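Thread: quick sanity check before group meeting

JM: Hey all, I'm pulling together slides for Thursday and realized we never actually wrote out the predicted structure for the chain we discussed last week. Dropping the sequence here so it's in one place. If anyone has concerns about the input, flag it before I start.
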Amino acid sequence: MSAGPAPAAGDADAHWLRRTVDLSRLCPPSDTAFSVGCVVVAADGTVLGEGYSRRDDPHDHAEEAALRDVGPDDPRLAGATLYSSLEPCSSRSSRPLPCASLILTTPVPRVVFAWREPSVFVDCVGAERLRAAGRTVLERPDLADGVREVNAHLLG
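JM (edit): ok, ran it. Output follows.
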């Protein structure tokens, strides 16, 4: 996989969140789900996995697809940052685990997202769930415009 700036170095978070928005533009359109992109980045800036909603299956969420690219025993996950264009979901009907719970099955210590999920489909508390479990969670609403643009058709 490719590499870029190390997470949390300078404005690396903005760099990687812009990549998640680019990935979200690859999502097959849906009237019932957000278009989301995700990148899992090792501490040295190596991309461990990338994904976007509906990448391999109509029910795929971006975080799920990106984490599928990484071996679950990859030791680099313990120092990685998961970047998502949208707050990781806290409930879903299409899979057993919502994305916040899926992230908690990994040692990923840091999650950064651009846009807190609006209550279009559910009331999301993914950020709170991750923080309560001891993960560092950073929201970058200054980078949310691109995410809103990709999902404008859902916002009416």
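AS: nice. Residues 141 and 152 are 16 Å apart (CA to CA). The mean pLDDT is 89.
JM: adding both to the slides.
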